[in-house]
Design brief:
Blueprint: H1 16-41, E1 51-56, E2 58-60, H2 79-87, E3 94-97, E4 109-110, E5 112-114, H3 115-132, E6 136-141, E7 147-148, H4 149-160, E8 166-169, E9 178-179, H5 184-190, H6 198-211, H7 222-232
Parallel strand pairs: 1-6, 2-5, 3-8, 4-9
Antiparallel strand pairs: 4-7
Helix pairs in contact: 2-4, 2-6, 4-6
Length: about 230
């Protein structure tokens, strides 16, 4: 019940994917601590052994250029790539898993972070490890603001320019009401903060999708590449 979720919140994965992430954190922590302890036994500091546990929430968006983006194979697990498939006709409609949650519109809440903000978070975390030698340190990378499924549908539909169809079905096993980050630690220690908006993420993803409906299996439209080159001059 700790929402927004801080780093010290007890870890309790509700599905196999979450369990793999929790297990990896334990493995990384055990390894770094063992190496540090071994170094101390040899009279060394062990400061070279450090690890960042970056707990990022829901990556969203694409590169603003429209030439790099997510290209999921098969059925995407995340909401925005599913909406993108609906927008280009690969999928008839979006399935909304449950509208009976205790949120303002009944749908689940997630914290969506633009991939460029996420990339910046990786860089500052690496710099922190190099400069501060903290051992193992966890940071949440999120906006601190949750959005419901219906809000995401509305936002992405606005970027596309038309309402996208959806159907409400039963809840999905393992889903929870709210996964919103508390990014205070990253804000203060890493001097990092998410800068891009949900609207930026939707617009960037749609730019990538409409110019590359088959992902990396096709060349972007020639006129789009020409505009991109002209913009760089």
């Amino acid at each position: 019940n700790m929402i927004p979720i801080p780093e010290h919140c007890p870890i309790g994965p509700t599905n196999p994917y979450g369990r793999t992430k929790a297990t990896n954190e334990l493995i990384i922590t055990d390894h770094v601590e063992a190496q540090r302890n071994n170094a101390k036994k040899e009279g060394k500091s062990g400061d070279q052994w450090n690890a960042a546990l970056l707990r990022y929430f829901n990556p969203a968006g694409s590169h603003p250029s429209g030439i790099m983006g997510e290209d999921p194979q098969g059925v995407p697990y995340n909401l925005l790539p599913l909406l993108a498939q609906v927008a280009v006709g690969k999928r008839e409609k979006l399935l909304v898993f449950g509208d009976d949650y205790s949120s303002k519109d009944g749908t689940a809440i997630r914290d969506y972070i633009h991939i460029l903000d996420l990339a910046a978070g990786h860089l500052v975390a690496l710099n922190y490890l190099r400069d501060q030698h903290p051992g193992v340190r966890a940071w949440n990378l999120g906006t601190g603001k949750g959005s419901t499924v219906f809000e995401m549908i509305k936002s992405f539909s606005h970027a596309v320019g038309r309402d996208l169809p959806y159907e409400v079905v039963g809840r999905r096993a393992g889903d929870v009401l709210d996964l919103t980050a508390n990014p205070k630690r990253a804000n203060e220690e890493l001097k990092w903060k998410a800068k891009l908006t949900l609207e930026d993420a939707c617009e960037d993803l749609w730019r990538w999708t409409k110019n590359n409906p088959q992902g990396y299996r096709q060349q972007p439209p020639a006129e789009f590449l020409e505009k991109l080159k002209a913009g760089k001059k």
